[in-house]
Automatic annotation (TrEMBL):
The lineage of its organism: Bacteria, Pseudomonadati, Fibrobacterota, Fibrobacteria, Fibrobacterales. It catalyses: uroporphyrinogen III + 4 H(+) = coproporphyrinogen III + 4 CO2. This is Uroporphyrinogen decarboxylase. Signal peptide: none annotated. SUPFAM superfamilies: UROD/MetE-like.
Length: 338
């Protein structure tokens, strides 16, 4: 059965599906309870029962159209040889970042059926419990975004080291990105095989690049991922980048079904400039802290702008940890027309 979500992503309906980036998270009391059973984030993600439960929590709590696998964009890095830790309050940290050509020979291959068996188990558990009308989303990071963690050793606002490696040693940069792209493409195909109905590529930090650098530093590697999926699966692909309004022209000729945009993009301009494209998102995640009538009015504006075309309703970026449940309800109910 084709779900509303998949139909919308394929451009077959103007009815609007809704989900939220980072919808399993600390704003949900049931998530905080589950999270407290694990000493660290990676052991939580690697426990297939817990990951399946976290994946299902938002769909049990709200009338939304999709569950997204509870995992992270960085889960393949440890098997490539990176010492990844999530320290509370600090986010992801890598103790042995990739800084030069010397490290190329140390990159390891990932054996997905063995190393990521917990993803397979979690997806299959979710698929058994998730209603047929809802979609299960698999996801990966864009190669540039994953590589930025491997190179910087953590989250970077400037991508300083990543750009330095690209400018000073393009061959080493390209070797790392090619390695990540190959594994990322294979991992996304596996997620489709294991039960994901639609696939998201989250190239969150691509917006840090100029259009010119994006074309060389990121796009060719994202295309490797997309091509691998297209060769092996019919699942629709959503591409997301944060703060990337200046890159939409480059995303528009990626072979993806949906382009995710954050709140900085002027949606009405995009809809005019790209009459054939399907977009996702655009509602400012901070808006969910406002009074329900304001959330309702802003959500209505997006529904009105897109009333004659497909659009996937979502926030511009991940839901913030202190978001009030009532704000989420106001958003979802407005999409549902209640
Ligand atoms: O509900 C969902 O969306 C599914 C789960 C999910 C997580 N991370 C869980 C998570 C998804 C889809 C991601 C993607 C992800 N991870 C992205 C791309 C999307 C985006 O937000 O731009 C990025 C850039 C990461 C990298 C990452 N992981 C960061 C920067 C952090 C720390 C910041 C934070 O939100 O705490 C993480 C850790 C992380 N990933 C947590 C969760 C629930 C928090 C870990 C904890 O409980 O300590």
């Amino acid at each position: 059965m084709e779900t509303l979500f998949v139909k919308s992503a394929l451009g077959k309906t103007t009815e609007k599906p809704v989900w939220m980036m980072r919808q399993a998270g600390r704003y949900l009391p049931e998530y905080r309870e589950l999270r407290s059973r694990f000493p660290d984030f990676l052991s939580f993600v690697r426990d297939a029962d817990a990951a399946a439960e976290a994946t299902l929590q938002p769909t049990n709590h709200f009338d939304i159209d999709a569950a997204i696998l509870f995992s992270d964009i960085l889960v393949t890095l440890p098997y490539m040889g990176f010492d990844l830790r999530f320290e509370s309050g600090k986010g992801p940290m890598i103790a042995n970042p990739f800084r030069s050509a010397k490290e190329i020979s140390q990159l390891k291959n990932v054996y997905l059926d063995r190393d990521l068996i917990y993803t397979k188990n979690a997806l299959q558990k979710v698929r058994r419990k998730l209603s047929e009308e809802k979609s299960l989303l698999g996801f990966v990071g864009g190669p540039l975004t994953i590589a930025s963690y491997a190179i910087e050793g953590g989250t970077s606002k400037t991508l300083q080291q990543t750009k330095t490696l690209f400018y000073q040693d393009p061959e080493a940069y390209s070797a790392l990105l090619s390695h990540i792209a190959k594994i990322t493409g294979e991992y996304l195909v596996k997620q489709a095989e294991w039960g994901a109905d639609a696939l998201v590529i989250m190239d969150s930090w691509a917006g840090n690049l100029s259009l010119r650098d994006y074309q060389q530093m990121a796009k060719p590697f994202t295309e490797i991922v997309i091509q691998k999926v297209r060769e092996n699966s019919n699942a629709p692909i959503i591409h997301y980048a944060n703060g990337a309004a200046h890159l939409i022209s480059a995303f528009a000729n990626l072979s993806v079904n949906v382009i995710g945009v954050d709140h900085r993009s002027e949606l009405s301009d995009l809809l005019t400039a790209y009459p054939q494209k399907i977009f996702q998102g655009n509602l400012d995640q901070a808006l969910l802290f406002a009074r329900p009538e304001i959330i309702c009015a802003r959500t209505q504006e997006i529904l009105e702008l897109t009333k004659n075309r497909p659009h996937i309703m979502n926030l511009g970026h991940g839901i913030l940890p202190e978001t009030p449940i009532a704000g989420v309800q106001a958003f979802v109910k407005t999409v549902r027309g209640i």
